[in-house]
Amino acid sequence: MRRYQIFGLVTAALVGLGGTARAADVTVFAAASLTNALQDIGRAYEQTTSARVTFSFASSSTLAKQIEAGAAPDIFISADDDWMNYLAAKKAIKQDTRVALLSNRLVVVVPANSSVVLDIKIGADWLRALPPGRIVTGDPANVPVGKYAQQALMKLGIWDQIAPRLVRADNVRSALVLVERGEAAAGIVYATDAAISKSVKVAGLIPEDAHKPISYPMAITAGSKSPDTERFFAFLTSPAAKSIFTRFGFTSR
């Protein structure tokens, strides 16, 4: 008997003797701002199954480019529609699985010991309340938080004043760290990122009508091979997962 035939019989026997074969692992590529919430969701899911969930967190642009280059996660969660559209055009996702999962909002953060309070509206008056120094956000050329921030600053009429001071980070968590360390006077990040840090405070809210609605679309990738993918995908929209997202400040779509 050939080796692969023996292996098949042994595997079948193990499954038949009480399901001792573990479920397949699931790999998820997700926007950096989802790190803490998804780690908690992954732990909650693993309590219900023998499968493990592996996450890779980075900017949506970085992850999309990795998938385009041949990386094969099972699920992709972007922080904007543009990068999901990019992969859809490359036929790298299963379009019929795509869902709008979450929303968020932009805030301006400063170091926690700062007394700055901002009333952010059209015009540059509120900028005078910011201390001198660099202002950090994601790179508007690629990173979703930076793209939303640029749209807002242009709508507010202050992009030209802020652009020379702007530090362009490779993802929102990198931007947050620069403010935490005092290496930037202020940062534009998501409200959910500000909420997890004890080293920054929210100085002001960016008006939500100043930029495109913040959207976190999710889809199964065309290269997904794990038979447990659909189960975890469904779990991400379950009441249990939604309660965790809500606890971290996300809004369900």
List the helices and strands and how they pair.
Blueprint: H1 3-16, E1 26-31, H2 35-46, E2 53-58, H3 60-68, E3 75-77, H4 81-89, E4 99-103, E5 106-111, E6 135-138, H5 144-155, H6 159-162, E7 166-169, H7 172-180, E8 186-190, H8 191-195, E9 200-205, E10 216-220, H9 229-235, H10 239-247, E11 251-252
Parallel strand pairs: 1-2, 1-3, 6-7, 6-8
Antiparallel strand pairs: 3-10, 4-10, 4-11, 5-8, 5-9
The number of helical segments is 10
Largest sheet, if any?
6 strands, mixed
- The SSE string, one letter per element, is HEHEHEHEEEHHEHEHEEHHE
User: Percent of residues in beta strands?
Assistant: 15-25%
Tell me what the structure shows.
- With 253 residues, the chain is an alpha/beta fold.
- It has helices at residues 3-16, 35-46, 60-68, 81-89, 144-155, 159-162, 172-180, 191-195, 229-235, 239-247; strands at 26-31, 53-58, 75-77, 99-103, 106-111, 135-138, 166-169, 186-190, 200-205, 216-220, 251-252.
- The protein contains ten helices and eleven strands.
- Helix 2 (35-46) runs antiparallel to helix 10 and helix 3 packs parallel to helix 4 (81-89).
- Mean pLDDT is 90; it is low at 1-22.
